[in-house]
Every structure is written in C-alpha cells, then in structure tokens.
Design a protein that fits this description.
There is one protein chain. 36% of the residues lie in helices and 17% in strands. It is of the alpha/beta class and 429 residues long. The structure holds pyridoxal-5'-phosphate. Pyridoxal-5'-phosphate binds next to helix 5. Pyridoxal-5'-phosphate binds at residues 52, 111-113, 116, 141-143, 192, 196-197, 225, 227-228, 253, 418.
Length: 429
C-alpha cells in the first residue's frame, strides 16, 4: 500500500527543513476524527497519545470545529489592552473549576511553558530578596524555555544550556526531603502531581497534603503544574483535587485547548494579588479565538461527563492492559486516562514502532514505560481495539526478544516529542 516515493519525499523534507531538536518524525498525518488518525497513505491509526494529552475531545470534534470557525468569523484578536467576552467567560470558568472562589485570578499565555514562566515570576514576586530559593522535584518536567528548564529536574536536559536561571534547588519527591529543604528563604515549591514525561510517576500517597501543610507553615507558595494532568485527564478536573488541598497556584495548558494553543496560570487567595501592572504580559495570551475554543472544549467536557469518563475508562483501560497475556507487561500506574505501562524490558522504542505497524499510536515516556493518554471521549470500542492492537505489538516485540536478538533500539533513550534528555551530543563542526 505504501507508495515508497511519497514516503521518502516527506521524510526528506522533514529531515532537511525542520529543526533538529526533535527526533525523526514517525508518520505524516493528514486527517483525524475522534480517536483516529489517518496518514498520507490513507492508513488509519488508533490514537492513544492524543497529541501528548492535548486532544481531550479527540480529533475534529464538532464542538471544537464550531468554536474555531464561529469565533474566527467574529473576532480573533485585539491584544490585552482590551477584554473580550470569551476571555472573561473562560477566566470565570477556570476559577470555578479550580475552586479558587472570588479571589482567584487567571493569566493567559499560549503554552504550558508560558504558564510556568508566569508561575516562576509569581514565585519571585512572592519571594523578593528575602526568599531567593525555589524548590522543585527531581525528574519533574516543567518546560523548555530558559525559566522552565531551570525548574525542570533533569540535569541532562539542562546541561547544554548552562548557566541556568539561578535559585532553583531539586529535591527528592518525599515528605522528608521537603521538610529538610524548607526554610523561611524558600519562595515556592513547584510540583508535577504525576510526572508524565518522566514515565507517569505519581507522587507518594499523602505528599500533596503534606506539601500544602509544610509550605504554608514556612510561608512558601505551593504551585502545582497541571499542564499534563489538568482538564479532567486524571478523573478530577485537576489532579490536586484528588488530595483535597488548596494550592496557591496551578498551571494549565494542553487539554484545556483540545488542540488549540493556550496556557494559563490560575492563582488562589493572596497569591492573586502578587502581579501588578507591568510585571507580566503576552501579545497573544488569552485572545478571543483561543479562549472561545478552550471555553467550548471545557463546555463539552462538562456536558458529556468526560471527567467521570476519564476515571471510569482509566480503570477499564488498566484492567485491559493488565489482562493482556504478555510477559512484557510489569504493571500499570497513573490516574484516570494518564497511564504508564511499565515493561519488564527496556524496549519501549520497539513497542511504539510495532504498535504503529499494527495501527496504534502510543508513546515511549522512557525506555521501560509506555505512556497512554487517549482522548477523554474513548469508550468500549476504542478500549477493545486498543487491547487487541497493543497485545499484538507486545507479541511482535516479545517474539523478537525470544529469538535472543534484542531489538537494536532496546536501550535507546526515551522517545519524546515533547522533549527529554538530548539523545546524543554532536560537536559543532
Ligand atoms: C507537566 C508539564 N509541564 C509543562 C509542559 C510544557 O508545556 P508546553 O510543551 O506546552 O510548553 C509540559 C509538556 O509536556 C508538561 O507535561
């Protein structure tokens, strides 16, 4: 079926014209509908990555399409010198969903990194000169800009870009480590409630509640990065809500826009008074088009009960994975529809490639964890099909292992479109 010439052409174009900070593109997708994607050859794939936890409603959902086209025809952008109805409506909705009460405030950017940059500046405004220290968790991912890279606890990712923005210290994800690190010179603690990029690693039971208590005792802000976990993905609107705490700020992006670029910082209580005119801004952030689309996406998540669906389908999906007859599956972890499938061998590159051959898109979060983040809309049909395709992919890789010829990619580093450690360093010529 594959037309070799065409395939080579797009790969050549990508290799020549696109920035080399990403690995080789794995397919050329031309269309999507629901949980399915079609490539340039007309081959259909079940998409259990959803643009890395972005396409909450799946592809080309009528609510998304309608919101983009209606708002684009009405008013797209006027700058933050002015307000627009969709922007005000989305701010009010996010405050309600996050439970900030009256005093909450929302800053809009265009990505997760921008939301976290705003949160970093919030922490600095809170800390001033007396609190120069910021704590973040080892292995947590917060973005690729210089500020958010400084917050990201992955030394290999930071290394080519040293020196980092100063003041950030990385601690283990334990209450003991937090207790030992906190003092009156700490401005904020940043946490990722489930470390998605690191391999869907949840925080220890009780960590968020303890972090809330300890940061409050020391006068430090608790800032929760909900960029991957927010918008209902974990079976609550935001992952911090499982812990029943009130943070000082959360950051959101990805699934909020359902494929339209948008990010936001949502503040609670006194943290809402820290920014004052001139301290932050963005030309595009919170424009009418982005906020109208995000409003429609959140509307549909609420209307269709997709937060509850994420919880129910998440359990169903994990049961399906654990029921697969494969020695390669060690277990599952995560919450709702953000799931890590732990493998017994470091063969995730081979599994994602085999899955794609079988018509399934999954992601290698690291060399021994497959990440699943399907649209929140999935049901029995998609889960049954996933189990069949994923089982077939695992069998393909297991067969290769049994032949005692481990796939060449067996110990390759994580496959990470969103980014992870640099794969190899090439000295500039
Ligand atoms: C937890 C977390 N924070 C921040 C980011 C950065 O978001 P963006 O890629 O939209 O800048 C990501 C993206 O993967 C993420 O998962």
């Amino acid at each position: 079926m594959t037309n070799g010439t065409e395939t080579i052409t797009w790969r050549e174009d990508a290799g020549r014209d696109l920035v080399r900070s990403f690995g080789d593109r794995m397919a050329l997708f031309v269309r999507g509908e629901g949980a399915y994607l079609w490539d340039d050859q007309g081959t259909r794939y079940l998409d259990f990555l959803a643009g890395i936890a972005v396409d909450s409603l799946g592809h080309a959902h009528p609510a998304f399409v309608e919101a983009v086209s209606t708002q684009a025809a009405l008013l797209a952008h006027v700058s933050n010198y002015f307000a627009t109805p969709p922007q005000l409506a989305l701010a009010a909705r996010l405050k309600r969903l996050a439970g900030t009460g009256e005093s909450g405030r929302v800053y809009f950017g265009n990505s997760g990194a921008e939301a976290n940059e705003a949160a970093f500046k919030l922490a600095r405004l809170h800390g001033g000169v007396d609190r120069p220290r910021i704590l973040a968790l080892k292995e947590a991912f917060h973005g690729r800009t210089m500020g958010t890279l400084a917050l990201t606890g992955k030394p290999l990712m930071q290394e080519p870009f040293q020196p980092m923005v100063p003041g950030v210290e990385f601690i283990d994800s334990t209450v003991d480590a937090l207790e030992a690190a906190l003092d009156e010179r700490v401005a904020a603690l940043f946490v990722e409630p489930i470390k998605g990029e690191a391999g869907v690693l949840p925080l220890p039971e009780g960590y968020l509640a303890a972090a809330r208590e300890l940061t409050a005792r020391h006068g430090a802000l608790l800032i929760v990065d909900e960029i991957q976990t927010g918008a209902g993905r974990t079976g609550e609107w935001f992952a911090f809500q499982h812990a029943g705490i009130t943070p000082d700020a959360i950051t959101v992006a990805k699934g909020i826009g359902g494929g339209f670029p948008i990010g936001a910082l949502i503040t609670f209580g006194a943290a809402s008074d820290l920014f004052y005119p001139g301290t932050h801004g963005s030309t595009f952030g919170g424009n009418a088009l982005a906020t109208a689309v995000a409003g429609a996406v959140l509307d549909e998540i609420e209307r269709a009960g997709l937060v509850e669906n994420a919880a129910v389908r998440g359990t169903q999906l994990r049961t399906a994975v654990e029921g697969l007859d494969s020695d390669l599956v060690a277990g599952t972890r995560g919450e709702g529809l953000l799931i890590g499938v732990a493998l017994t061998h470091p063969v995730t590159k081979a599994v994602t490639a085999a899955a794609q051959q079988h018509g399934l898109i999954v992601n290698a979060a690291n060399d021994s964890t497959i990440r699943l983040a399907p649209p929140l809309t999935i049901g029995d049909v998609e889960i049954d099909e996933f189990a069949r395709l994923f089982g077939a992919a695992l069998a393909t890789v297991a067969d290769a292992l049994l032949l005692d010829e481990p796939p060449a990619t067996a110990s390759a580093p994580a496959d990470d479109a969103a980014g992870d450690a640099p794969r190899e360093r090439k000295e500039p010529k």
